[in-house]
Specification:
- There is one protein chain.
- This protein folds into 2 domains: 236 residues, Alpha-Beta Complex (Naphthalene 1,2-dioxygenase Alpha Subunit, Chain A, domain 1), CATH 3.90.380; 104 residues, Rieske [2Fe-2S] iron-sulphur domain (Rieske Iron-sulfur Protein, 3-layer Sandwich), CATH 2.102.10.10.
- It has 8 helices and 17 strands.
- The strands form 4 sheets. The chain has a 7-stranded antiparallel sheet with strand order 2-11-10-5-4-3-6, with no helix packed on it.
- The radius of gyration is 23 Å and the shape is globular.
- It starts with 10 loop residues before the first strand and ends in a 5-residue tail after the last helix.
- Bound molecules: FE2/S2 (inorganic) cluster and fe (ii) ion.
């Protein structure tokens, strides 16, 4: 096994990158309006509806015409009014509330209402401004980039192939506004040095976490390999027991893993267990505020079990999320210190280093280099 550990201690990002409004604007433009951003599951966009979303500060609408999901910037091509002021059912046309320009659900401009079009005005050039849309494992992703970037996760795009993602239903949802920069959240997610101190329950469930590392490959203590989950546990529930029938399509190895993480920077991660799946999404609200939305996805037959309590299943991971949120907020409060310029990363924080490089590369590409 090759160790992913760093052989040096690189500098962290400058403290101002976690609090400065100008830096944040650069990230919204160069990261959040360029990359694929998760905005919900397919079922959050029912047939014949218009749903509003924000990606990287850009207001967009997702239109489901009964067949296709499409996304557009929420702005009218006449004089730039907000087009949809609320989530609505989809009528035959999407009409601007200001002067009634009307668009087809596919974005074509159909009518300029009382405005009389002159010969130099070409209706076909004034359709709604499109936003790229992609569905991956039933999660809807948008990209406001001119050219859609390649869709990537940290472990490839086929990694959940044996989980029946399309047929899972959301049984529990947890939403929180964390008082931290969005990067602080990902940094916390990307290391386990904090696990022994911050997550006693999780570290008990996942023995390797007690050593302050995320996986066997990171160990340098030379000890015997540890089980993925503690003795007798199969999944992330309080007693470690599955909350319903395990997914039938998983391989032996997948069943033994206990959890499979899939990370899609900057906005989402999925944790697939033997019996349920958790989807966590992030939305930056300001340099120091991030909205977190976590959903617990179950097979219908699990939800249909008499007396099934999805919130009881969710308790274990919610506790972990809350512990992380408190740590992130504590980190953010410290980052406000005028005395702190930048930190140093330890070898185990190789994923944070990669994340920093990922962000910096995009800032440079977008002309927002610090
Ligand atoms: S701004 Fe939409 S019709 Fe005038
Ligand atoms: Fe954590």
């Amino acid at each position: 096994m090759t160790s992913p550990l760093l052989d040096h201690s690189p500098a962290s990002l400058p403290a101002r990158s976690y609090r400065d409004a100008g830096w944040h604007e650069g990230e919204l433009a160069a990261v959040w309006r360029q990359e694929w951003v998760a905005v919900g599951r397919r079922t959050d966009f029912p047939e014949r509806t218009i749903r509003r979303r924000t990606i990287g500060g850009a207001e967009v609408i997702v239109v489901n015409d009964g067949k296709v999901l499409r996304a557009f910037h929420n702005v009218c091509r006449h004089r730039g009014s907000e087009l949809c002021t609320a989530d609505t059912p989809l009528g035959r046309l999407i009409s601007c509330p200001y002067h009634a320009w009307a668009y087809a659900p596919d974005g074509r401009l159909m009518s300029t209402a009382f405005g009389t079009a002159t010969p130099d005005f070409d209706r076909t050039e004034h359709g709604l401004l499109p936003v790229h849309l992609k569905i991956w494992n039933d999660v809807v992703f948008l990209s406001a980039a001119e050219e859609a970037p390649e869709f990537q996760t940290d472990v490839g795009t086929r990694t959940l192939a044996n989980w029946p993602m399309e047929s899972l239903r959301t049984g529990h949802r947890h939403e929180a506004i964390i008082q931290c920069n969005w990067k602080v959240f990902w940094e916390n997610y990307s290391e386990c040095l904090h696990c022994p101190g911050i997550h006693p329950g999780l570290s008990d469930m996942i023995p390797v976490y007690k050593l302050g590392v995320m996986a066997e490959a990171e160990r340098s203590d030379g000890g015997a390999a540890l089980p993925a989950l503690k003795e007798g546990a199969m999944t992330w529930t309080e007693d470690g027991q599955p909350c319903g029938p395990p997914f039938p399509g998983l391989t032996e190895a997948e069943r033994a893993e206990g959890h499979r993480f899939v990370t899609i920077w900057p906005s989402a991660y999925v944790v697939a267990h033997v019996d349920y799946v958790r989807l966590v999404r992030l939305e930056p609200l300001s340099p120091t505020e991030t909205r977190l939305t976590a959903e617990w996805l179950f097979p219908e037959e699990t939800l249909a079990q008499p007396g099934f309590d999805a919130s009881a299943v969710a308790r274990f991971a919610t506790q972990v999320l809350n512990e992380d949120a408190a740590a992130c907020e504590m980190n953010q409060r410290g980052l406000a210190s005028p005395a702190f310029a930048a930190g140093r990363l330890m070898p185990q924080e190789y994923e944070i280093h990669a994340f920093h490089q990922w962000v910096l590369k995009r800032l440079a590409r977008g002309g927002h280099a610090p």
